[in-house]
Design goal:
The complex is a heterodimer of chains A (about 260) and B (about 450). Chain A is built from 5 helices and 13 strands. Chain A is of the alpha+beta class and about 260 residues long. Chain B contains 15 helices and 13 strands. Chain B is α+β, with helices and mostly antiparallel strands. In chain B, the strands form 2 sheets. In chain B, strands 4-5-10-7-9-8 form a 6-stranded mixed beta barrel. In chain B, strand 4 and strand 5 form a beta hairpin. The chains are: A alpha+beta (about 260), B alpha+beta (about 450). Chains A and B meet through strand 6 of A and strand 8, strand 9 and helix 8 of B.
Chain lengths: ~260, ~450
């Protein structure tokens, strides 16, 4: 081997790891279709294609105020996108509830015995949570994703994407930044922005739990814990715990105003 | 005619003759009149301040506002294509003096240290010179409100949110389509509080409000119509006529509803219609939620006045009884030399009426003086009282008709209080009266 060949071999041996590292760093950005596929998986893993009943715990902390705690039951039906929340605690809120009929969210307060039509983007119980936080995930239907790179969140490798609301849809948050666990496709973190581009809310999903769904004939996943941090009023935060989940079929007449009213009689 | 003056003269001389008693009664009457003048003045002051402030800050004499519903469940407090509506109003309402358009919104004000909900009003400060005249700016420059993303707040809000001129403030709200949005504003002026109206109101430029709510440039919150002075008391018929005229022009107009616009949003949201509906209101409708304070104050004043007048009437009757008792022999002598019963009755009535007139006039002058003193002192009142007074200082508005009314009322009441004792005096027989001792 000539001296020149030896030098070329040494140069190659040194250069290879550098090129390999560079190639690894400059990963191929996922295409839009690939990102849409990821979103579909994110949605699909949470969709049980049947009925849903869960008990939730909500805790709202605000600056200079006593923490507000609610307990409630959430009912969902996939087939016709029905949705209902019935508050069970505290006593002052017992019997209050939200019912989604078509594209309208109605609020019932037994103290006044009246139904009020509320916006779909209503803060549930005055907390920083929205109806969509408890409803089936429909990210792929509602948003167009763009790649925002990869990030390490603790021990998880996350695919980061920026979601922009599809035209013509009325969404609470027009822009969302999403961190999805590359391995499990569970959402790890979410940031929601205003039209102005200002960051409004950051959410963390530290615990995911799976449960067998008879209607789907397979496991579905749901976040056991969600933490919302208000980014405008920095001192405010909301904790949501989904304590129990039951996927058995619900009564046919459950999603009616009469049913919700009957719970406070 | 000479008999009339003779009666007056006798009554007047009698008052001078019994000057100690007359002075005592006169002072009591004057005190009650002064109190009546001040209470009336306070009520008029509250009403005047309310109207002056509200007509500049939040409403016109008439308003054409409305709601636009993108879907049946979402209502925005806006008037679309407002220039066309303005043209229609100009055509249909020649009584209008001038019009201004304002933006209407509701959002959360967030500073570094706190937050509060507030009505966010859009204003074109360059076109509204009266606005600058009504507000007393504590710090900053109100003209800077013409610049985009600037805000005028009130003193109590500045204290609550710990803000000063130049600080940043975020307004967070939902657009008419329910999408979250924010604008970051710079505080350019802090104005002195003006009662209840300044508790929840802040002002930004119309453009800033449009940016926040993502509205087109041909969209306004409300067209505030200011009427020519001679028509300012004909609000209800003018509003009814404007409603009909706008309907005739092809607009959908809401039925008359004497509530403020923000009190209607729940009902409007519950209704199924979509698109634009206009809502014609008067300033009294828009301030209906505050009128109760005025009514409560008027009610309280009335109760107080009834009690005071009752005490006064009792005092006058008592004093008259004493006077008649003391002057029984005098009555007997007058009757004996030919005075008829009617003459005796008139003599006592005139005495009372004169006393009421003199005491009432003195009281009115005293009340006017006290009111002027109160106004000049600019007495600051606590926040809770400001909400009722619509001002941070006591304002007593004493008007000439109110003064004359108070004098007339007190004179009549005094005269009526003396009627029964005077009748009894007139019925005395001359022989019995002359032989009366005691």
């Amino acid at each position: 081997m000539s001296k020149r060949s030896v030098l070329q071999l040494i140069a190659f041996l040194f250069a290879f790891p550098v090129f390999a590292l560079a190639a690894r760093t400059a990963r191929a950005a996922p295409s839009k279709d690939e990102l849409v596929q990821i979103l579909k998986v994110v949605d699909d893993r949470q969709r049980n294609q049947g009925d849903w009943r869960s008990s939730i715990y909500m805790e709202q902390k605000e600056k200079d105020k006593v923490a507000v705690v609610y307990e409630a039951l959430v009912f969902r039906r996939s087939s016709d996108q029905k949705f209902m929340i019935l508050f069970t605690k505290p006593k002052a809120s017992q019997g209050q509830g939200y019912l989604r009929i078509d594209q309208n969210l109605w609020f019932y307060d037994p103290a006044v015995g009246k139904w009020e039509r509320r916006t779909e983007r209503e803060r549930i119980g005055g907390t920083n949570s929205r109806r969509s936080d408890f409803d089936e995930s429909r990210l792929a239907e509602e948003y167009d994703p763009e790649d925002s790179g990869e990030e390490k969140l603790g021990v998880y490798n996350a695919q980061v994407m920026t979601l922009k609301g599809k035209p013509g849809l009325d969404l609470a948050f027009p822009v969302i930044k999403l961190w999805v666990d590359k391995d499990t496709k569970n959402v790890l973190k979410r940031q929601e922005f205003a039209l102005s581009g200002k960051l409004l809310r950051t959410s963390y999903y530290p615990k995911w739990q799976k449960i067998y769904s008879e209607s789907r004939k397979g496991d579905i996943w749901y976040p056991q814990e969600i933490r919302f941090y208000d980014e405008v009023e920095k001192q405010n935060s909301t904790l949501i715990l989904i304590k129990t989940v039951d996927l058995k079929p619900l009564e046919a007449n459950l999603f009616t105003k009469a049913w919700l009213e009957s719970k406070s009689r | 005619m000479s008999a009339f003056f003779l009666d007056i003269r006798i009554a007047f001389l009698s008052l001078i003759e019994h000057r100690r008693r007359a002075a005592f009664l006169g002072i009591a009457i004057a005190a009650v009149t002064a109190l009546l003048v001040i209470l009336n003045g306070l009520a008029a002051g509250i009403r005047g301040t309310l109207i002056d402030t509200a007509l500049t800050l939040s409403t016109g004499h008439l308003n054409v506002g409305g709601f636009y519903k993108v879907t049946s469940g979402q209502a925005g407090m806006v008037v679309t294509e407002y220039k066309k509506v303005e043209d229609a109003v100009k055509r249909d309402l020649p009584e209008a003096d001038f019009m201004v358009e304002r933006g209407r919104g509701w959002g959360k004000l967030v500073s570094d240290t706190g937050s509060m909900q507030a009505a966010v009003s859009g204003i074109d400060i360059e076109r509204e010179s009266a606005f600058k005249g009504v507000l007393r700016v504590e710090s900053g420059n109100i003209d800077e409100l013409a610049q985009p993303k600037t805000i005028l707040i009130f003193d109590a809000q500045a204290k609550k949110l710990k803000l000063k001129v130049g600080d940043a403030l975020t307004i967070s709200a939902q657009t008419t389509r329910g999408v979250a949005n924010t604008i970051d504003c710079r505080v350019v002026a802090i104005a002195e509080d003006v009662g209840l109206l300044s508790q929840w109101n802040v002002f930004v430029s119309n453009e800033s409000l449009r940016t926040l709510y993502q509205l087109r440039s041909d969209v306004a919150g409300v067209i505030q119509i200011h009427l020519k002075p001679q028509y300012q008391n004909d609000l209800a018929p003018l509003a009814a006529r404007l409603r009909l005229a706008l309907e005739h022009d092809g607009y959908r107009v809401m039925e008359a509803d004497s509530r403020a616009f923000w009190m209607k949003i729940q009902d409007v949201t519950r209704e199924e219609w979509t698109g634009q509906k206009l809502d014609v209101t008067t300033w009294e409708d828009e301030l209906s939620f505050m009128m109760w304070t005025l009514q409560a104050f008027n009610g309280l004043s009335l109760v107080l006045m009834v009690i005071l007048v009752a005490i006064m009437v009792t005092g006058i009757m008592n004093t008259m009884w004493i006077a008649i008792r003391e002057r029984t022999r005098e009555i007997g002598t007058l009757r004996a030399i030919g005075m008829q019963r009617g003459g005796v009755l008139r003599m006592f009535l005139w005495e009372s009426l004169l006393l009421g007139l003199l005491g009432g006039s003195a009281g009115a002058v005293l009340g006017f003086g006290l009111a002027a003193l109160l106004n000049a002192s600019k007495i600051h009142v606590p926040l809770s009282v400001q909400l009722f007074l619509m001002s941070d200082t006591v304002r007593v508005a004493v008007l000439l008709p109110a003064l004359l009314g108070a004098i007339a009322l007190i004179s009549v009441v005094t005269g009526l209080a003396a009627l029964y004792p005077a009748l009894r005096a007139a019925r005395l027989k001359p022989v019995d009266a002359m032989s009366h001792f005691g």
